[in-house]
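Design a sequence for this backbone.
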């Protein structure tokens, strides 16, 4: 029986992970970790009876202890999650939480030989310079949960790295792909994604194409790719999730319904494909698969991502942090939709790069970006 810890169990990816594990005979939930939704965390624990429950936020410690009532062991903060990463009983950790604070957990889990299924773009991107150095020597296995990177991972199985020409990341284009102007967009409009049901932050990132911008940098880390080996295309149907082009002209793609349960399950069971609760794709029902180039003037965060990837160092952390502040400001009505992209660009371009950073340098760069973005908003 494989034991799984889910970090971020009450979010969209976490809930989907639970639904996946319900249908896997030889997997069980060993630990559940949440943020602020303690009530849902307790409901999940009552259903699955894990050994551990925890919260990332120390301010929720008393509330969680009171609601647990001694029924399960409790852990708190990043430190508690890091304990799970080092726990010898755990086989796999699913990082379903957002934000770049999970680097320590990710590294510790990989150092302890665990399978790490991650949906956390922010950590991979912010610490990309460090991860590129560390990942090749880690005994654990890092498998992406993003549908795009899962598709590429599957399309690369059995391939020789030297045979790859490039990878292609499809983007749905979000709700504004066919809209000429991005002026006057409300939060309600931006949160209405045409194909995916996700949390608010990632949905706004999909509307600005920041989500795809982050995936460009993430793909470079996960698959050891240079910027010119990564291409982004708009694919409104969200049926083709990723493609790999080989030097002989062959293109291998992964297709499926847009359902997160598919990449989540594969991240746990890879390289095996086992029965899934996700809806199946009926090819004869697919009327068209269309692709076109990104309008980089309308969505400037895509070319900015390539610049950030080329520069490396502390710049990816600044890119991530500026977006976090800008999206929060948009959702609270402080800035306009277009200003999200303007703020990310201005913060990124005004940063004094550290080319070979340590962990502290990255943390300091994030703090600088948070402060700079807030200054621009105010």
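Sequence:
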């Amino acid at each position: 029986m494989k034991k799984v810890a889910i970090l971020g169990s009450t979010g969209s990816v976490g809930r989907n992970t639970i639904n996946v594990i319900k249908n896997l005979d030889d997997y069980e939930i060993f630990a559940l970790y949440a943020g602020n939704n303690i009530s849902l965390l307790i409901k999940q624990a009552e259903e699955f009876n894990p050994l551990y429950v925890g919260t990332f936020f120390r301010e929720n410690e008393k509330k969680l202890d009171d609601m647990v009532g001694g029924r399960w062991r409790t852990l708190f903060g990043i430190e508690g999650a890091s304990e799970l990463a080092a726990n010898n009983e755990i086989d796999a950790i699913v990082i379903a939480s957002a934000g770049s604070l999970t680097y320590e957990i990710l590294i510790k889990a990989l150092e302890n030989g665990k399978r790490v299924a991650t949906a956390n773009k922010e950590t991979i991107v912010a610490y990309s310079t460090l991860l590129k150095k560390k990942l090749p020597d880690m005994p654990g296995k890092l498998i992406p949960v993003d549908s795009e990177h899962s598709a590429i991972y599957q399309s690369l199985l059995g391939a020789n790295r030297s045979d790859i020409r490039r990878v292609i990341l499809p983007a749905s284009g979000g709700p504004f792909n066919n809209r000429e102007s991005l002026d006057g967009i409300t939060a309600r409009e931006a949160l209405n994604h045409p194909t995916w049901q996700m949390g608010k932050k990632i949905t706004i990132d999909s509307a600005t194409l920041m989500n795809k911008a982050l995936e460009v940098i993430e793909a470079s880390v996960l698959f050891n790719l240079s910027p010119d080996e990564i291409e982004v295309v708009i694919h409104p149907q969200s049926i083709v999730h990723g493609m790999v082009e080989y030097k002989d002209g062959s293109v291998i793609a992964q297709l499926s319904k847009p359902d997160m349960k598919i990449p989540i399950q594969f991240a746990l069971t890879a390289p095996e494909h086992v029965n899934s609760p996700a809806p199946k794709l009926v090819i004869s029902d697919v009327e068209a698969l269309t692709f076109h180039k990104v309008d980089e003037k309308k969505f400037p965060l895509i070319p900015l991502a390539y610049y950030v990837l080329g520069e490396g160092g502390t710049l990816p952390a600044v890119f991530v942090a500026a977006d976090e502040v800008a999206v929060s400001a948009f959702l609270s009505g402080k800035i306009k939709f277009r200003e999200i992209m303007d703020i990310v660009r201005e913060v990124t371009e005004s940063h004094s790069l550290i080319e070979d950073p340590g962990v502290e340098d990255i943390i300091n760069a994030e703090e600088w970006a948070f402060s700079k973005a807030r200054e621009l908003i105010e």
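Residues 160-257+277-296 form one domain.
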